[in-house]
Amino acid sequence: MDDVEALTAIVGLLKQLDADTQHRVLQSVRTFLGIEALPSSHERVTHPPQLSHTHDDVVGKFSKDRSLSPKEFMRDKNPASDVERVACLAYFLAHYRDSPHFKTIDISTLNTEAAQPKFSNSSVAVDNAMKQGYLAGATKGNKQISAVGERYVELLPDRESAREALTTFRRKPRQKNARKGKREI
Questions:
Q1: Residues 6+ away with beta carbon under 8 Å from 22
Q2: Within a 10 A sphere around the Cβ of 23, how many other Cβ atoms?
Q3: What is the rounded distance in angstroms from the CA atom of residue 116 to the CA atom of residue 122?
């Protein structure tokens, strides 16, 4: 794909969004890629902007962007189930609140702040998100969003792409090596 095709595709996608969302998406992309804002024409500098090349730098910058409220984030992601909602809330905690490790009560509290419907049983919703691989265990009984969960949430609200990503991320279960017959002593 050349730069004209890429630009056409990007502009076509952004045209479908309102102006505020366009700005937020462009800011997030610039932050995620580590691209500093270019100076205006009267502020031009003689050297190009520096790009950050480490994942930690990008994640650190991205997690400091607190301009998006939990309500806006959930509206943009449009989760369709309790499990998707838990994954989205976990993602928000990790990337927008600098809380990579959390308890179930943190998910419930953020759910209320995001003005989402109450969970009928938040513990069950979190456990189901764990079983589906969106969350992983952390230290001291905490949970954290898994790589699969992060990728899934990043692709929402496009569920088709998100589900497709799950198949590439998830490993096939290992075959158990069952012995038949008598035990050896």
A1: 14
A2: 13
A3: 12
pTM: 0.58
Q: Which of left, alpha, beta for 108 (phi over 0: left; psi -120 to 50: alpha)?
A: alpha
CA pair distance 39, 161, nearest whole angstrom: 35
Q: Decide: 54 and 32 in contact? Cβ < 8 Å.
A: no
Sorted by sequence, the CB contacts under 8 Å of residue 1 that are 6+ apart come out as 9
The DSSP output letter for 39 is P
In the chain, CATH 1.10.10 covers 68-170
pLDDT at res. 171: 58
Name the stretches of the chain with pLDDT < 50: 39-64
CATH number of 68-170: 1.10.10
Rounded CA separation 16/175 (Å): 46
- The DSSP result for 99-128, as a single string, is -SSB-HHHHHHHHHHTTPPPPS-HHHHHHH
Using DSSP's 3-state secondary structure scheme, residue 135 falls into strand
Question: In this structure, which amino acid lies at residue 158?
Answer: D
